[in-house]
Design a protein that fits this description.
L-arginine/glycine Amidinotransferase, Chain A, 4-stranded mixed β-sheet, 3-stranded mixed β-sheet, 10 helices, Agmatine deiminase, protein-arginine deiminase activity, Peptidyl-Arg-deiminase_porph
Amino acid sequence: MTSRRVLPAEWAPQSAVMLTWPHPGTDWASRLEEVEPVFEAIARAVLRFEHLVISCEHVFRVQDLGRDLNRYAEENSLPGRVITVPAPANDTWARDHGPITVETGDGPELLDFRFNAWGGKFPWEKDDALNRHLANAGVFGTAPLKPVDFVLEGGSIESDGQGTLLTTSECLLTPSRNPSLDRTAIEHLLAEVLGSNRVLWLNHGYLAGDDTDSHIDTLARFCAPDHICYVTCPDVADEHYSALAAMEEELKEFRQENGQPYRLTALPWPDPIHDEEGERLPATYANFLIINGAVLLPIYGVAQDDEAIEVMQGIFPDREIIPIDCRPLVYQHGSLHCVTMQIPAGVVNT
């Protein structure tokens, strides 16, 4: 049996969320005491709703995590359980090195795109092999893991679950990823492997301190097939103002497949966060994660956090909004969505 391929929207039913745990061999080495509690908060929130897959290069650490988190889930009668896999990793950005799952008439299919650390910016070989380690460990059950000879990160695409993808030209057209392919060739490939019939390209929008070449999941997100939320900057003196204003105009021009404009919701703009050297960091409320029954929202200990929670509750009135302090994550230039990858229903079982 075969049928049209579909890349599910993030709000589709899930079986698990994947985390690649930080360890001393990553760039988190000097900040492990700060960042591990963030990962633990994400893990505990996920277990309230679904299973969790954790990999870590350090065998004893991943065993300890599985034992402690499963005890927590059992003691609190939570539905989720933890599957742990010792596996080498260069870093922790599961959104970008994790599998991208499509639904087919034959069931879920996990696509193992190539990962080259956002165009060769950092070491990537261990991360690029991680999905195969998980598959060999039986994490994905009977769902096949299929290699795709194309560099693509999960954070660079958004799906409405109905065949429309949202992305940025800054990322997908960067020559350091797929230099031989132009926009048309990339659209054809995405249609073939992800089942997309439309690609909406944003040509504007960026965040200072971002290593990803403007991943869409830091800028604009599908909240429903007809609804997009997005980052906007109200301060005309801010370096982001012009680019984000231009992005907003592009979003207003986009049309749904039925010809209607999208409902648009602007997200609050957090106060600037800088590292010790004064570099501005890419804090964004757009980097949330939708899971079964909830939305995990990154907050940063700034004045706009409460407004962001309120706005997000308005966008997702039927889901619990769970704020998680992700300020430690932005010191490595990412946030909550960046360190997670959802696995759709029917894949992970414990």
